[in-house]
Design a protein that fits this description.
The chain is α+β, with helices and mostly antiparallel strands and 192 residues long. The protein has a single domain, classed as Immunoglobulin-like. It contains two helices and nine strands; from the N terminus they run H-E-H-E-E-E-E-E-E-E-E. The longest helix has 25 residues.
Length: 192
């Protein structure tokens, strides 16, 4: 019996030693390290033109020489007040936006004297209900370099409204005159 107990005792000690070894090494030998994780989200500005601006453009229609403050057709909707010329800040944008405006050159028709930018005026209206007697009429001269408008700090999903007027000089030749107007959206506070 002693031999049996010795074998039993030896086996019990071996098993106990193995269990103790496993228990002691299972929580030891591990090392935990950490590091910071970060991402910088870029500023994103996206703007779009109202249907009237993108499809029809700024149309003055048929105007006579020696006339001033000819309204563009979208200055007043059928209700006589709302401007349909607006630029919207996309809901995809993640910053507030200031609007800037310019054209590429004076209203032009090859072979005829252009209608100078000093005769082409714009005004930004802070809401769609500002009517054609807006105190900023006849507006600001169009330029070929960007100029910041008063439509500033427009939030994503917001709109900036515009109106346009044209003075036609005396003896301006009969023709169709055209140019391109550009709108730029910049993060509020940034230069055009």
């Amino acid at each position: 019996m002693v031999k049996f107990n010795g074998i039993f005792l030896t086996a019990f000690i071996v098993i106990l030693s193995a269990a103790l070894f496993i228990w002691m090494t299972s929580d030891t030998g591990a090392d935990i390290q950490s590091t910071a994780s970060n991402a910088t989200i870029s500023e994103y500005v996206a703007i779009g033109l109202s249907g009237n601006l993108s499809l029809s453009g700024i149309a003055f229609g048929s105007v006579n020489p020696n006339t001033n403050n000819n309204n563009a057709s979208g200055n007043n909707n059928s209700d006589g007040q709302n401007s349909s010329y607006n630029v919207n800040v996309s809901t995809d944008s993640n910053v507030a936006v200031d609007f800037c405006i310019r054209d590429n050159y004076a209203l032009n028709n090859s072979g005829n004297t252009p209608i100078a930018n000093s005769n082409y005026h714009w005004a930004d209206v802070n809401n769609s209900l500002a009517n054609s007697s807006d105190p900023r009429m006849p507006g600001t001269d169009m330029l070929t370099t960007y100029q910041k408008t008063n439509n500033t700090d427009v939030q994503p999903g917001g709109l900036g409204y515009f109106r346009f007027w044209l003075n036609v000089p005396t003896a301006q030749a009969a023709a169709v005159y055209s140019n391109t107007v550009f709108f730029e959206g910049v993060k509020t506070g940034n230069a055009c």
